[in-house]
Amino acid sequence: MDILRGMRIFVTVVDGGSFIAAAEQLDTSNAAISRQISALEDHFGVRLLNRTTRRLSLTEPGQALYDRAQQILEDLGEMEASVGQHGAMPSGVLRISAPLSFGIHTLAHLLPGFHARYPKLRLDIDLTDRVVDLVHDGRDVALRIATAPSQNLIARKIAPVRMILCAAPDYLARHGTPVKPQDLAHHQVLSYSYLSSGDTWVLIDAAGEKASVRVKPSIHASNGDLLCTLALAGGGIIVQPEFIVARHIEAGALVPILHGWRLGDFNLHAVYLSRKYLSVKVRVFIDYLAAALGKQTVPGIDDPRT
């Protein structure tokens, strides 16, 4: 049988809720739709739909096929559009994963312009600081801030992300200001749970010299904004992206420390699955981010529409 045609019909049946609705949409007979579904079930050797006189419901294998068939048909449509006409407007659902604070502070300001440029794309955005599994979590693209992305994925560097060591003036007045990296071992530190180096901070100076220090965090947390709030209250020293702490530093509520030292070279990366053909919807999203952020350090945002 024609598996691709069978999948199209199957998805149409599920979306329409009945064989009759699918037959009307596809301009064919109810019997033809029934034969196609039966042939698809025979091909896979499983029941895909539970049929009653009043309604249809998906079996577990049917749900799995429906989810995969939707993605396959969507990818096929994008591939045809990309090959057939390079200027085609991408459509469908773009599933994005991004760090929580980056999503709120930076990505949210870019999305209105992106949506205005690509109105046929629907966005499904998951904001989480954990490293998602693109396949298991069903994401098309993930944004990650790291010194180096996973070797198992294709990654495109979008922009540098400056990490800043800082603390509240009140904390520094009570505990003193560190003058060298080793001093951090004797200070209260508020640490990001997903920091790749853990509690061993490796700082680098302008000459490329490295200093490794084992910190003893009083608090671990999986979100930078929470740590920033604690630091503002005088809770200790943090190292966080500029897009989280910049406005507080400008207001004087946080003070940068250890000038001339940095915690490695962090960048914003867009990562996606290692596929031969990059879908149009992922490509235009990554290109849009690169145009907005690629020539500067996050969080500065230039509207790509201008």
From TrEMBL:
Keywords: DNA-binding, Transcription, Transcription regulation. Belongs to the LysR transcriptional regulatory family. Residues 1-59 form the HTH lysR-type domain. PANTHER family: HTH-TYPE TRANSCRIPTIONAL REGULATOR, TRANSCRIPTIONAL REGULATORY PROTEIN. It holds the Pfam family HTH_1. This is LysR family transcriptional regulator. The lineage of its organism: Bacteria, Pseudomonadati, Pseudomonadota, Alphaproteobacteria, Rhodobacterales. Signal peptide: none annotated. The keyword Transferase does not apply.
